[in-house]
Design brief:
This protein has about 190 residues and is mostly beta strands. The chain is about 10% helix and about 40% strand. A hairpin with a 2-residue loop joins strand 7 and strand 8.
């Protein structure tokens, strides 16, 4: 609680042009504002970059021959769609849009169409932030269409610009759609 002298000083400084109450600034800095934002713009094809083998945190999953032309992934009605019939492995990265603090929440929404292949197989999809897997699934093929949601609570500070990676490999002519990666900070 402010003392009477502190309150008077704050009022006097606040009344002067260009001066702010330092106690008010301190309060504003210690109470983070709640938010809900896209951590990446999933449909911004110019923001995504293909991760090369040297920078791939899941490089052990990479096939010997990687075949994934740029046309295999595209923006589709505000989402990112990947056609695995022409793409046997994909790792795409985009810098995160904002800094995150412990307690912030991330959610990833994606889905796949009917999964089919000439022989039974397993698809693997994962999302990583700053090199950490925040959600992943192994999906048997064949399989019916399915919506997937990964949720993760941030446990250590993350700077804005940290790489957010979509990792996907799947056998057969299948379609996967990344809908959103959302960061949320609830009200205090």
């Amino acid at each position: 609680m402010r003392s009477l002298l502190g309150a008077l000083l704050g009022a006097l400084l606040g009344a002067l042009p260009g001066c702010a109450d330092p106690l008010e600034d301190e309060v504003q800095q210690t109470e983070p504002e709640p938010f809900e934002v896209a951590l990446v713009e999933v449909d911004d094809l110019d923001a995504w970059v293909v991760v090369d083998a040297a920078d791939d945190d899941l490089a052990a999953h990479r096939p010997e021959t990687l075949n994934c032309p740029v046309g295999a992934w595209r923006a589709e009605l505000g989402t990112l769609e990947v056609q695995t019939g022409v793409c046997n492995y994909l790792a795409l990265a985009q810098p995160s849009s904002r800094a995150l603090a412990p307690g912030d929440h991330l959610s990833v929404d994606l889905w796949h169409d009917v999964l089919d292949a000439a022989a039974p197989a397993t698809a693997h999809v994962a999302v990583l932030v700053a090199g950490r897997v925040i959600g992943e699934a192994e999906v048997p093929i064949p399989n019916a269409p399915e919506v997937l949601r990964f949720e993760w609570t941030v446990d250590e500070p993350l700077a804005a610009g940290e790489p957010v990676v979509l990792h996907l490999h799947n056998h057969g002519y299948n379609a996967w759609t990344l809908v959103a990666i959302t960061a949320t900070r609830p009200p205090p």
